[in-house]
Amino acid sequence: MCSNKENILDQVTNGIKKDSGLSEAETNFEFKFSSQPTLENLSEELLDFCKQRNWQQYHTPRNLLLALVGEVGELSEIFQWKGEVPVGLGSSFNEKEREHLEQELSDVFIYLIRLSQACKVDLPKAVEAKIEHNKQKYPVEKCFGQSKKYHEYN
Ligand SMILES: Nc1ccn([C@H]2C[C@H](O)[C@@H](COP(=O)(O)OP(=O)(O)OP(=O)(O)O)O2)c(=O)n1
After folding, report:
1. Does the keyword Ligase apply (predicted)?
2. Which of 11, 68, 101, 111 is the most buried (most CB within 10 A)?
3. Residue nearest to atom 14 of ligand 1 (CA)
4. Distance from the CA of 17 to the center of ligand 1, in angstroms?
5. Looking at this predicted complex, what is its ipTM?
6. Structural domain span for residue 47
7. Model confidence over 35-76: pLDDT tens digits?
8. Is residue 134 part of a domain?
9. Distance between CA atoms of 84 and 79, rounded to whole angstroms?
């Protein structure tokens, strides 16, 4: 390890290793989402899906929130009893389980988009603002390599 960048990477990796017991390969986050469809594309499609079925009457904020929580429960069941799972899932998930995971993550995302629509929250803008807020709350120089709650730092 000679450069500063390598040094930081090493510290991050070791930090993850120490907490999760996973190796460097198992904590490799290199991954990119597709650029299409956009959030706006999905948002429009979901609104159409709902209108075509005359389901606006059911897609109220409270109902959508309950549906979202239900889907989070279904997502959790997939991981239940598996113990720690590496980033990328490794050999912990077979093809069928991976497909199931894709479906449950999608259900959660779909209801999150619908709930945001029903609450008229501009989700990408809100997330961007929240990330900025998190940066202020968790400054790198205070939090580097530690995962404590913000009020536990001095
Ligand atoms: N009133 C509804 C019912 C369903 N959906 C959409 C959003 C979810 O993506 C999916 C949820 O469908 P199900 O309630 O059938 O749940 P699952 O797909 O999880 O099926 P199961 O409960 O059998 O696992 O369909 C919706 O928008 N509004």
Report:
1. no
2. 111
3. 67
4. 37
5. 0.98
6. 38-84+93-143
7. 999 999 999 999 999 999 999 999 999 999 999 999 999 999
8. yes
9. 9
